[in-house]
């Protein structure tokens, strides 16, 4: 199946699976996309299974300013051709925290450079990069990644400096990363709690 045909078929599937109530709910809650079919995640996973993972297809889907296409891009992008520079291009055009969370979960956490990029991204000024960095840290801690002392100190320092930011999605991601870090052992739990004690704003 040619790329244009695959894209046409995917958009047809999305229209058939459209959920106007979910789409309207997202708009009412400030989650705005150029086009949002409101298709639920289990259905998107099923649609993704109908297609072979493809770099060309995933890149074409990401360029579409459509919620579901961006989610499918993360599901269909092969890990081996998702180079760090491509990951950063995606983050630069990432429209919402929802897409950030799903892309990190479905794709970025599986890359060989995930740990390295997590540190780089949380230190950047752009909030979307910071968000992806902390989401990535949370995923890596859940997978059992352990930091050495120097890396641990760097992570905790960055988290402490970002914890009281104004961006609610970013703040939640920092809290989640600290909580997952704290679940590793008693020492990490104490260190995470000490940082979380500085949280000034109730969620």
Q: Give unreliable regions as ranges.
A: none
Give the % helix. 55-70%
| N-to-C SSE string, H for helix and E for strand | HHHHHHHHHHHH
How many structurally independent domains? 2
Oligomer: single chain
Describe the structure.
This protein is mostly helical. It is built from 12 helices and no strands. It folds into 2 domains: 1-81, no CATH class; 96-203, no CATH class.
Task: Give me a quick take on this structure.
Helix content is 67%, strand content 0%. The chain has helices at residues 3-16, 20-28, 41-49, 55-63, 67-76, 84-92, 97-106, 114-122, 127-142, 149-162, 168-182, 186-196.
SSE layout:
Elements: H1 3-16, H2 20-28, H3 41-49, H4 55-63, H5 67-76, H6 84-92, H7 97-106, H8 114-122, H9 127-142, H10 149-162, H11 168-182, H12 186-196
Key terms:
67% helix; 2 domains; 203 residues; mainly alpha; globular; 0% strand
């Amino acid at each position: 199946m040619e790329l244009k045909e695959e894209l046409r078929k995917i958009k047809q599937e999305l229209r058939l699976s459209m959920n106007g109530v979910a789409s309207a709910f997202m708009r009412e809650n400030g989650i705005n996309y150029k086009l949002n079919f409101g298709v639920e995640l289990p259905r998107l996973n099923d649609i993704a299974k109908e297609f072979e993972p493809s770099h060309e297809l995933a890149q074409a889907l990401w360029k579409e300013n459509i919620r579901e296409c961006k989610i499918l891009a993360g599901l269909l992008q092969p890990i081996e051709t998702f180079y760090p520079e491509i990951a950063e291009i995606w983050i630069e055009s990432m429209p919402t925290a929802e897409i950030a969370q799903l892309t990190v979960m479905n794709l970025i956490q599986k890359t060989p450079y995930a740990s390295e990029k997590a540190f780089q991204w949380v230190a950047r000024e752009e909030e979307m990069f910071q968000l992806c960095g902390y989401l990535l840290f949370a995923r890596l801690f859940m997978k059992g990644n352990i930091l050495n002392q120097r890396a641990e100190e760097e992570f905790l320092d960055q988290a402490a400096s970002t914890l009281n930011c104004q961006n609610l999605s970013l703040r939640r991601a920092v809290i989640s990363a600290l909580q997952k870090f704290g679940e590793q052992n008693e020492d990490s739990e104490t260190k995470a709690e000490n940082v979380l004690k500085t949280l000034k704003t109730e969620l």
